[in-house]
């Protein structure tokens, strides 16, 4: 297990959101909808929505990571998912916290591909081995990332289904 860590603070998160939003503006892309990947992309999607004046926000929940450097074999989309009719013909911006393997972004991009006019991706961090190259990236790293919202353990421990 890697010992080096990338530490993102809430203050740096605010900087990342604004920098990513500026990249989108500078590219000329004007999304109609921001689709956040839960849970990690929810804060980014909200921040980008405000910065880009996009009120049409949606989320998709994809489970992949189960712990530090522990993941399922493939990402699984969990219900509810956005209806195809709600995405038809839109330019969307897919927001997530990190493109690590890229498989989560790939699943979501493939899910919307036949419905939308165009889909681009924005992430706070990109790792060099990702299978998806996001159009908008704040930083590149090879380290495990400590996000401010997940660095501390939960205040409660909920029973997992089947346990």
Automatic annotation (TrEMBL):
Keyword Glycosyltransferase found: yes
Keyword vocabulary terms for this entry: Glycosyltransferase, Transferase
Pfam family name, one: Pribosyltran
InterPro entries per record: PRTase-like, PRTase_dom
Keyword Transferase found: yes
GO MF annotations in UniProt: glycosyltransferase activity
Protein name: Phosphoribosyltransferase
Organism from which the protein derives: Nocardioides conyzicola
